[in-house]
């Protein structure tokens, strides 16, 4: 398959950079699509958090069991606890994209032509910036996700914050109570609890995602027939990249969730998880995490269709590169 030659990419898949797009259209549609994708996949994210924070199988026996029990005990709304707060993370996604593109352009100016190196470095830097905006929102959202029906029961005992019963009676009461309690107990630092643990998860995850993505795109492009749509190759490479990076970083993700909710140190959390799970730490919440990554990464390529500002500047078919949020 011939390589499209308007840039330094060699995978045979045309990469459209941010400067080639209508930015106003891109960022507005990226925010809208981020909201829609998050709405579709949020229940799986909530289940992942609860699986990671429970002791062994004290409440749920797996992803499907958690889904059934939450639906039965808390209703459909129980699957969306903290959803509206979590949508503030869209700002971090846009920051992620802007940083990723900027770093790629800087590396290009320094004549770094290796696509995998550019993707790896830019992905890591983008995650660093994205997490700075994301961690405070993530902490509040995770506390909301741990609230069981009416804030009582075994799920509440897993959340160290003592949320007053009166706060549970209004729509925004739990959010205000969580923000107030976190600030009262830990000050502003409380909203960045687990920040470095998050970086230890998402920066490598982001870097690995882009690294694997370039590899999978190249391999698929080399072996795909000419009639195969380029977008189909990207929609295949993206979830494969998500699965690969999730498997590698899953133990740190479980530790991160515990640190942010339980306010423990890294070593304490890692030791507790190892005593509770042993080798199960490598698979704790992994099925839900893989599903989230697979679905989200598979949907990302479709966001970019039609946003190219100069689609005619390079001949032949091309594909729009995925801007993954790193979540």
Automatic annotation (TrEMBL):
GO-annotated cellular components: membrane; mitochondrion
Membrane topology annotation: Multi-pass membrane protein
Solcar repeat start and end residues: 21-106, 114-219
Keyword list, A-Z: Membrane, Repeat, Transmembrane, Transport
Places the protein is found: Membrane
A Pfam family hit: Mito_carr
GO biological process terms, semicolon-separated: branched-chain amino acid catabolic process
Leader sequence segment: none
Molecular function via GO: branched-chain amino acid transmembrane transporter activity
InterPro entries: MCP (IPR002067), MCP_dom_sf (IPR023395), MCP_transmembrane (IPR018108), SLC25A44 (IPR042164)
Family: Belongs to the mitochondrial carrier (TC 2.A.29) family.
Protein name: Solute carrier family 25 member 44
Taxonomic lineage of the native organism: Eukaryota, Metazoa, Spiralia, Lophotrochozoa, Annelida
